[in-house]
Structure formats: structure tokens, C-alpha cells
Amino acid sequence: MKRFFSSVIFLFLFSGICISQEKLNVVVIGAHPDDCDIDAGGTAILFAEEGHNVLFVSVTNGDAGHHEKGGGALAKIRTAEAKEAGKRFGVEYVVMDNHDGELMPTLEIRLDIIRLIRKWNADIVIGPRPNDYHPDHRNTAILVQDAAYMVIVPNVAPDTSPLKKNPVFLYTQDRFKKPTPFVPDIAVDITDVFDQKIYAMSAHESQFFEWLPWTSGKLDQVPDTEKERLEWLAEWRKPGKTEEVQKSLVKWYGEEEAVEIRYAEAFEICEYGRRPSDDEIRMLFPMIGK
Fold it and tell me: Low-confidence residues of the chain, pLDDT below 50?
């Protein structure tokens, strides 16, 4: 049986709800519940604060991401955590029903993603690069790349109207150098919303306070109180501001302002989507320079 969205999410996307044409429509796609939060959560908050439409998508249901729980029970926990995180970020959150740790870049899932991007009438699509330690991350990147351009082709997924123009596709920042390092074409100051990002991320309790600390040998360091946990998570997950990211911040914010920026999220333009000019980037990222 074809696996697609849960019935609730399916109804949300296909019930005829119209996405505003006056606002930007942004889709962030990750492999697991919490990936979008880490990679683009601050930028998503800034978009949402200005009234733009943001959709987070987890391509898997996260049912393998724990050392003590698993299967359908874990998938339910992670979907509930994603729903709560979405409320805190101010975004919609979709969790697709594909198994964690088993994701493959199949035509079926690619068509699901094409339909989703079309239904959201996306101006911007953000996802990972295909350079990563985790096969689900790599295969999510392939799925998003393979959906680029095809979202405007009428005879592909003809049951859903094609977009009139290709969105701008962007990669999120990573630390991997081979075969090519990440290039921060766009950098966004998230300093003012960093605490909110951390609070929203903390909704994924099974991940940030259980599973990921366990995998990194930090489980015995996790504090007990909420306040201490937020402080601990903020220190652990603060984004690194590389020299290249700093140069990008100077380009977009100016030398004087860039020096004061503590936290930033950066994005690389994917050649498979539309190639925006600097002027268009400023229109697509209205928070830049403010």
C-alpha cells in the first residue's frame, strides 16, 4: 500500500486550503523530525514573524531514532513532538510515513515531495546537501534535488497542478568537505530569535535529551530542570559561525552590523532551482539587513 502522509496531514494539504499569494511560501525539508528545526529553525521563525507561510517536512517518521524505544510507538512520540515544535516555531509541520534508517530516493517518494511543494506553491525550498554521514540525510537531498525543475513539468505528477515558475532551492549548512565544501551564499542573522529556536527545538525531548545525548556520550550530562536543559541545549547546539559565513554576513548586513551578529544560519543556492540575483534574494529574505 502506498505510504504518503497521515490522514490528518493529507486532509490539510488537499482540502482546498489556499496559500496566500501575497506572502512568501517556504518549504523546509529534512530527513527526520527535528532536522528542519536544527538547520533552519531561526530563519523559519523570522519568516513566520513577518506573516509568511512556512512548512517543515520530515521525510521519515523517526521510528528508529532512539536507544530504548522504536517502531510505531516511537513514531507517534516523534510526530507529537514535531507538532508541538511547529507551534513554537509558528510553522506547519508534516511528518511523512516512511521508515527511519531505510529511506531510499524512490520515484514514489519523489512524486509525493513534488506534490507537496506544488500544493504549498513554494517560492523557496530548503533541504540538506547530499554530503552527510547519514544515508537518510543523503537520500532526502537526492529526493529534493530530483524534485527541483520537475515541479514545473505538467506531465510529472499530473494529478497536481505544476508551479508556474521554479522555486529557489537552497541547501542548509553542514561541515562536510568532500567532494565539495558548503558555500554560504546567503546568511541570516538569527541572534534575536535564537532563544526561541532552542525552546522550539526542546519540544523534541526524545531526541535532544535522550537519543542524541546517548549517541554522543552526553546522556549523563543532561540536566533535570527545564531552565537548565534549555541553557545546556543552547550551548550544545549553537550554530558555528565560520569565516566563510562571517564573510557572507558582511555582504548582506554590512561590516559594522555583521561583527555584532552572534548566531546565524547559512544557505547555499542549489543550481537545480532558480538562480536568484542579489536583489531577488533580498526580496525572498526580507529579514536580511533589518
Answer: 1-20
